Write a sequence for this structure.
């Protein structure tokens, strides 16, 4: 079944730890996105990718980094987590093609940094 | 400036009554508009989109939206609300500055509460 997956769903870690949030999609989509969302609030784009070996920063400045080595995989890494990174992180993908193609979202990772 | 506004933080409606969730936008270029719904602890689900043509767009779960170019609005509607429609609704517009990246600008969200 074509879908988009995120792991872990919930993560509680201490300050200073390195973490990687995983995102995978089985739809063969070229475009992928990472959003940051505080509970019940709007989404802010932090990273996006057109395809393999392509990554760009989004509109909201973030200390995280991303990589796109395989089409289906778009992990997000925080080298040293801080309490200010506490948030929900949503991954999305869309087909390459017209700019009105809708985005498909994963279930999100809720990160808490103590 | 590119922006999306959802003027109501919360909309309350009784089950069986019609509902409207409001959205206005400002964007350069063609206004490609979207509605998404988010249930608690879940990602966003696509409901419908406007590209061109008929101003009334039909989507999933009985929802529809009306595009009004002169008022730069794209209000979400449903003729008869269900308790299960209670969720957080986001309006989004394609970022007209972004070429073909597909980047979206999201509104701040509106919580829909449908009471039995």
């Amino acid at each position: 079944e074509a879908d988009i997956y995120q792991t872990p769903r919930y993560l509680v870690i201490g300050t200073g730890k390195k973490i990687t949030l995983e995102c995978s999609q089985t739809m063969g989509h070229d475009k992928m996105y990472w959003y940051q969302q505080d509970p019940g609030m709007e989404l802010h784009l932090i990273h996006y990718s057109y395809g393999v070996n392509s990554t760009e920063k989004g509109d909201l400045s973030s200390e995280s980094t991303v990589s796109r080595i395989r089409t289906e995989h778009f992990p997000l890494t925080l080298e040293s987590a801080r309490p200010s990174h506490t948030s929900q992180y949503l991954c999305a993908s869309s087909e390459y093609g017209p700019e009105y193609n809708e985005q498909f979202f994963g279930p999100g990772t809720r990160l808490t940094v103590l | 400036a590119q922006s999306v506004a959802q003027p109501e933080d919360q909309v309350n409606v009784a089950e069986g009554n019609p509902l409207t969730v409001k959205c206005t936008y400002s964007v350069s270029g063609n206004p490609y508009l979207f509605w998404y719904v988010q249930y608690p602890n879940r990602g966003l689900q696509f409901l419908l989109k406007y590209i061109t043509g008929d101003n009334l767009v039909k989507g999933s779960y009985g929802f529809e939206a009306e595009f009004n170019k002169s008022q730069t609005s794209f209000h979400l509607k449903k003729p008869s609300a269900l308790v299960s429609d209670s969720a957080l609704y986001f309006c989004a517009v394609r970022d007209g500055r972004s070429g073909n990246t597909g980047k979206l600008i999201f509104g701040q969200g509106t919580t829909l509460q449908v009471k039995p």
